[in-house]
Amino acid sequence: MSTHSTATSTRWERFRDSYLLYSFKRDVIAQVSLLVFVVMVLAALLAPWLAPANPYDLAQIDILASELPPFWIDGADPQYLMGTDSQGRDMLSTILYGMRVSLVIGFGAVALQAALGVCFGLLAGYLGGRVDAFLMRLADIQLSFSTLMVAIVVGALFKAIFGGATYSDYAMWLLVLIIGLAEWPQYARTVRASVLAEKSKEYVDAARVMGLRSRRIMFRHILPNTLSPIFVISTVQVANAIISEAALSFLGLGMPETQPSLGSLIKSGFDYIQSGSWWITLIPGLVLVVLVLVINLLGDWLRDVLNPRLYKG
Amino acid sequence: MFKKTLLASALGAAMLTAALPQAAVAETTLRMAYDADPVSLDIHEQLSGGILQLSHMVFDPLVRWTKDFEFEPRLATDWEQIDDTTMRITLREGVTFHSGNPFTAEDVAWTVDRLKQSGDFKAIFEPIETVNVIDDHTVEIVSKRPNPLLLNMATYIFPMDSQFYSGETEDGKAKDEIVKNGNSYASRNVSGTGPFQVTNRQQGVRVDFERFDDYWDSESPGNVDNITLTPISENATRVAALLSGDVDFIAPVPPNDLERIESDEDTNLVTMSGTRIILFHMNQDRVEAFQDPRVRQAFVYAINQEGIADRLMKGFATPAAQFSPDGYSGHNPELEPRFDLDRAKELMAEAGYEDGFSITMMAPNNRYVNDAKIAQAVAAMLARINVTVDLKTLPKAQYWGEYDDRAADMMMIGWHSDTEDSANFHQYLTECPNADTGAGQYNAGNYCNPELDQLMVDANLELDLEKRGEMLQQLEQGLYDDAAFIPLHWQDLAWASAANVDIEPVVNVLNFPYLGDLVINEE
Hints:
The complex is a heterodimer.
Chain A: H1 2-16, H2 19-26, H3 28-45, H4 47-50, H5 91-127, H6 129-144, H7 147-182, H8 184-199, H9 202-209, H10 214-225, H11 227-250, H12 262-270, H13 279-306, H14 308-312
Helix pairs in contact in A: 2-13, 3-5, 3-13, 5-6, 5-7, 5-8, 5-10, 5-11, 6-8, 7-11, 9-10, 11-12, 11-13, 12-13
Chain B: H1 2-15, E1 29-34, H2 49-58, E2 63-65, E3 71-73, E4 76-83, E5 86-91, H3 105-117, H4 122-125, E6 128-135, E7 138-143, H5 150-154, H6 185-188, E8 196-202, E9 206-211, E10 226-231, H7 235-243, E11 249-251, H8 258-263, E12 267-282, H9 293-302, H10 305-312, E13 317-319, H11 341-350, E14 358-364, H12 371-383, E15 388-394, H13 396-404, E16 410-415, H14 423-429, H15 450-461, H16 465-482, E17 486-498, E18 501-502, E19 519-520
Parallel strand pairs in B: 1-10, 1-11, 14-15, 14-16
Antiparallel strand pairs in B: 2-3, 4-5, 5-7, 6-7, 8-9, 9-10, 11-17, 12-16, 12-17, 13-17, 18-19
């Protein structure tokens, strides 16, 4: 019991004394970004309790309450703080629920990309030879298909095989799968490069001489030393995945009309942007921009901290 | 050249435009954007607004409607009722097809024959027994029974080049074959007498037209040499294209942008209250519950037509409770939209569907004004009576194929009466389907009530117009009581153009712009 608590306290002490926290305390932009990000994540997680209405329940929508402006404009209904869209959905609720979708897809897709990319990158870098050649060519091929194209093909196939109703039920997970599968090479290439650099170092030789199995060397010895670039890529990729989802939904290939995400909300307001009801597009657009911006700012900060050349040199 | 300059000056003076027309040296091109391009070049393949608009560009009808619903002679110069069932029509002389073949009475007979074979058109032309060729420029149209609507039908007879469409293609298919949503000779090649020839067509991308040099109508003021039709399905993009000067003519204009276009000095806006009914069919073949009239009534009671017309259409539509718009003989003034959610729930409970059920729904997304948004709103309204809707919206090029297959439980359609008469609605949309006669060709609800069909047949034999109107109103009442379909609204019409394109004289409530007569003023 006592050993356990010492272990945690030393870990905490280590974190308290780390350069990471030191630089965070001195970087206002990083602090604000993290604060905004945490607030957005909490708001999204608590959407079912925070949102005044459930935008996915069609029975709650009233066409007569459509295109109401947000509260600071004349003609607003106090019931709808951020106004309503062209179908009469409460914008605030839809944005909260839409953010949930964006974040789930962002993190889910990145988790999948990372899992695939790290495994393939480690294998390619450590084993080399034919495995390396095969996996990297696979990555090249994968990269030559754009995410959009993969999404169109997979989405169309899925709809054709299982029907539109099933698609609506699984649209979010399908998008996680598509964006996850389409962008694993980003990870694989970076991890492979790091592995090639680490492989020739003495601790790897030492581990090999001790007779450890390849798998253990790869995951327990080399992987921890390649984590910094993985973290940095992850922040960028989360932002990318969120943008991809928004783009797909904007094109009508993502979330179904009845379950609007930020992208499909922006699309549904597109017709109205120059004819008065600008808030339908602008507000979710701003939310999307802020969400992606804070993630990118955090990523930038993390890159600066973790880059050995920048802080040691 | 001389003629064009003369006409342009005459018009310039008439329009009191400040800029004097220059000698017509440069070619005048009209760049226009519709929400979709025609699905085929075969004008007998599909009975639709898009195809009829194409027909008025590439072909000429025997007669056409003027703005105040008079008949204007086109390829027919004169007509005369010989007896109860026979009408003699004199045809215009000196008309040639785009292929160079001369236009004769044979072409008219051939065209009516082909219309009677077309799945979509045969129901309209069913009353015609035969067309007798008297001489090169005279035909007699013989009806099966006295037919007060024969000239109305003649507005849909666009004589086709019978020589051009005769014979076989290289792979042994008849050139006059009508293939729906398929790839036939006639769907790719076209020869008519109309003001424009198709020079290039890429489906879904653009269609190029060029004025036909030997066009017979030398009186026409039209001065457009080339037309480029680009489909732009996004409402906002279409309007932006007009305002930025990328195109000169757009239709339809989305209701939420009317004010913006009207207040812009560089554009013209023309609006008219329309007669096209937008409705949903409830398919009784696919969904057993729809066979119960109470369920159908519940669906009608659940839909807030006024809400859709008011909010989505911005008041640019009239809420409907029947087929016939005001002014038609069959319009029954007693029928009112019946939105009442409590009544809808009661009816569902009575029918034993308190907990609702799931259905599929399809609607086009570039055919009618705000079609996809309307479908979404209807889906949301049905959720209130516990009906779960799986909605799919698709471009009209794919939609009509699905429609012909009756691919969903509820399908949207808009209908403008082909004969400007109430009976046409019932004949196509709610008559018991019969592939041989073409009855109920667009009846995606599979609604069938022989009593009402008999009423229509009787009405069509009735020559006393007042009595006929009463019968047609009775027919509307029957459909209303039975909740044969879900009426939504009559869609208003709007076109917009650059200020120098004078569209007002050529557009009409039929939504067939007579582009051959369009005048573009020099800037």
